[in-house]
């Protein structure tokens, strides 16, 4: 059965691997099965459902012998239609399965840092990896796309497209709708006509807000900090916009670039945005009650069909 990955395809650029290409040989499958933590891969089945993220070059190295991100939609008969996502390097015969925790991502970083030849091959000379302005936001995006907390994922709403940082209101709107469908929350379905009309107006402002984000200059701040909270050298994505459940947040996302702790990620200055924060109209025309209502509303409802 033919499969096509839709999951964040704009960011990852999934390419189907020809099942007759012998991209993975028997030795590769032995290595992959030795490292994945759950059900094993059946090569006969898996080769027909294997994809590689062509846009993600974080750990491939300039010669392409480093770690590529793969997804297999049907790894085996037992694990049919349950995707397996993993980093794998044919050169090093090592796989890291992305299982929803931050552990495999940090284990991959540890493997790179603790093996000098691997580190030089993938990260290059000192400062070379960091100097590629695409690596830092891609690394942060990869982390949050593949790490899930107890109550869900923080989803970054930006990605690179033709070397430009963009966002998408339509994808965001679909994400909000999916949240309510998964959680069987019908509160938004019982809105009165007036409430739904207000919600539609707010979504128009949301659309304008997303367009405004695309026009803002993107910058990563490199800094050294020494405080009770954290110390070291960091690349910080200031006021990164994220979606969590049915709300928009901004946060400063720090990627540690200290040699002994390279790759660890932390959040600070998290702020949940209210409807007032994304309101694009003339605030002076709002009444006090309208202002209070917008400031108090942080949950975003999907539009009715």
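^ structure tokens above, recovered residues below v
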């Amino acid at each position: 059965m033919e499969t096509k990955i839709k999951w964040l395809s704009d960011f990852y650029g999934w390419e189907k691997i020809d099942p007759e290409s012998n991209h993975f040989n028997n030795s590769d499958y032995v290595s992959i099965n030795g490292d994945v933590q759950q059900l094993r891969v059946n090569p006969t089945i898996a080769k027909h459902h294997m994809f590689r993220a062509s846009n993600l070059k974080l750990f491939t190295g300039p010669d392409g012998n480093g770690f590529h991100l793969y997804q297999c939609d049907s790894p085996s008969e037992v694990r049919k239609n349950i995707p397996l996502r993993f980093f794998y390097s044919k050169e090093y015969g090592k796989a890291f399965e992305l299982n929803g925790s931050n552990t495999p991502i940090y284990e991959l970083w540890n493997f790179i840092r603790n093996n000098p030849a691997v580190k030089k091959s993938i990260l290059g000379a000192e400062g070379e990896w960091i100097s590629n302005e695409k690596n830092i936001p891609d690394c942060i995006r990869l982390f949050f796309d593949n790490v899930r907390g107890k109550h869900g994922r923080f989803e970054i709403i930006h990605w690179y497209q033709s070397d430009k940082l963009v966002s998408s209101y339509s994808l965001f709107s679909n994400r909000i709708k999916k949240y309510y469908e998964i959680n069987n929350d019908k509160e938004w379905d019982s809105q009165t006509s007036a409430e739904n009309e207000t919600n539609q107006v707010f979504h128009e402002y949301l659309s304008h807000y997303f367009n405004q984000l695309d026009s803002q200059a993107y910058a990563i701040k490199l800094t050294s900090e020494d405080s009770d909270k954290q110390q070291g050298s960091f690349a910080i994505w200031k006021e990164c916009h994220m979606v969590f459940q049915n709300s928009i947040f901004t946060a400063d996302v720090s990627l540690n670039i200290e040699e002994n702790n390279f790759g660890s990620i932390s959040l600070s200055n998290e702020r949940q945005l209210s409807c007032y924060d994304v309101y694009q109209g003339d605030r002076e025309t709002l009444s006090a009650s309208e202002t209070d209502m917008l400031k108090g509303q942080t949950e975003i409802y999907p539009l009715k069909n």
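The first strand starts at residue 14 and ends at 16.
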